[in-house]
């Protein structure tokens, strides 16, 4: 590694932290209904902590898409980091409102996080942020695209996440919203895993260099639809292979104390399946 390489890496790292800090400030400004430090330190609010960590994780992935994108030189890379990093911040924060209005639409997410300290809601919020981090990473990095392609692929990703939430609600015998509103953390974790896995499938599909809409869009939609199809398949295989002899539904929703361990295994299955499918297809 040469001195030039070290200086370039240092400049890009500094630029990343600047954009990341701006992303934190934007999120704080958009959520004036609570004060982050007070909630995390004074009230020890675990639900908000989970949601915020998910947002930060999604922010790292989203801004990372701008960081690893093609750059001719250091100046060009820093300009791309600034433009696409700020675009990623805007879209990632808009994704939170998609979660509030379209995915967890039977209650207000902020009230569940702050008033009830509902960790299940925090898990789903984190899952949506991570899913969008993957989606934005795929939409931003790569050659041949631009702001318009990133916006289109992000918008399509939101449609697919909403469809994934509907499919997941259909394949689970229990009512997801009702279970989460009852502070069932396990139900929220399983749902979050499904959304994160779906986002990973879409994001990985979007990593290809953009050639044309005719070539890239069918592949993108094909991977997304494959992700929807695999949701019930993965849940079935989790029941049969990872948790033999028990039923996920019983462990998560039909006993006095929901089994968080079973939900974590379900969430793991969705996310790991997303990567395996991408590697194989």
Outline of this structure?
The protein is mainly alpha-helical. The chain contains 12 helices and no strands. It is globular, with a radius of gyration of 19 Å.
Write the layout of secondary structure elements.
Blueprint: H1 3-30, H2 36-42, H3 46-67, H4 74-103, H5 109-114, H6 119-140, H7 147-171, H8 176-181, H9 185-205, H10 213-242, H11 248-253, H12 260-280
Helix pairs in contact: 1-3, 1-4, 3-4, 3-6, 4-6, 4-7, 6-7, 6-9, 7-9, 7-10, 9-10, 9-12, 10-12
Averaging pLDDT over every residue, what do you get? 90
Q: Helicity, in percent?
A: over 70%
**Number of DSSP helices?**
12
Instruction: Tell me the series of helices and strands, N- to C-terminal.
Output: HHHHHHHHHHHH
Number of DSSP E strands: 0
Structural class by secondary-structure content: mainly alpha
Shape: globular
Low-confidence stretches: none
Radius of gyration: 19 Å
Strand content: under 5%
Amino-to-carboxy terminus distance? 35 Å
User: In this structure, how is the largest beta sheet organized?
Assistant: none
């Amino acid at each position: 590694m040469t001195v030039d390489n070290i200086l370039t890496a240092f400049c890009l790292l500094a630029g990343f932290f600047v954009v990341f800090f701006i992303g934190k400030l934007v999120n704080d400004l958009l959520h004036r209904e609570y004060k982050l430090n007070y909630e995390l330190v004074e009230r020890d609010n675990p639900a908000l902590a989970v949601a915020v960590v998910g947002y930060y994780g999604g922010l790292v992935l989203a801004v990372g898409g701008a960081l690893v994108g093609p750059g001719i030189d250091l100046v060009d890379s820093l300009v791309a980091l600034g433009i696409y990093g700020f675009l990623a911040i805007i879209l990632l924060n808009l994704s939170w409102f998609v979660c509030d209005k379209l995915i967890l639409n039977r209650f207000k997410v902020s009230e569940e996080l702050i008033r009830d300290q509902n960790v299940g809601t925090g898990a789903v919020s984190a899952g949506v942020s991570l899913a969008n981090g993957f989606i934005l990473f795929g939409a931003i990095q790569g050659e041949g695209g631009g702001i318009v392609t990133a916006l289109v692929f992000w918008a399509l990703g939101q449609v697919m996440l909403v469809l994934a939430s509907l499919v997941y609600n259909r394949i689970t015998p229990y009512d997801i919203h009702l279970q989460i509103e009852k502070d069932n953390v396990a139900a929220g974790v399983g749902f979050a895993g499904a959304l994160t896995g779906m986002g990973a499938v879409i994001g990985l599909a979007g990593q290809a260099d953009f050639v044309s809409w005719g070539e890239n869009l069918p592949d993108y939609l094909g991977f997304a639809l494959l992700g929807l199809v695999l949701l019930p398949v993965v849940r079935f295989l989790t029941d049969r292979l990872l948790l033999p002899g028990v039923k996920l539904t019983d462990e998560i929703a039909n006993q006095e104390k929901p089994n968080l361990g079973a939900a974590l295994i379900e969430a793991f299955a969705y996310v790991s399946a997303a990567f395996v499918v991408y590697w194989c297809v």
